[in-house]
Give the backbone structure.
Amino acid sequence: MPAPAPHRFQVCDAKPVQFYIGHNTVPSTLQTLRKKSGAYSIRILEGNQPATADFDQERLNIITNEAGKITALRCG
């Protein structure tokens, strides 16, 4: 069995996606956010939901309200 392809390091940049604050978290928007931010992964957090304190510069954190609207976008 061949070894998996090595992961190419990607650094998240939340500046290009700030326009999406107020949008819904539908799958197409989530994929656009991931691609435009350069993030390798995304994490969706609702309001004051607890999250791990680990910093991952390849991850875009998408913070939402109860209605599923994006309220903040930041890397980490």
Notes: Residues 45 and 63 are 5 Å apart (CA to CA). DSSP finds one helix and three strands in the chain. The mean pLDDT is 88. The first strand starts at residue 41 and ends at 46.
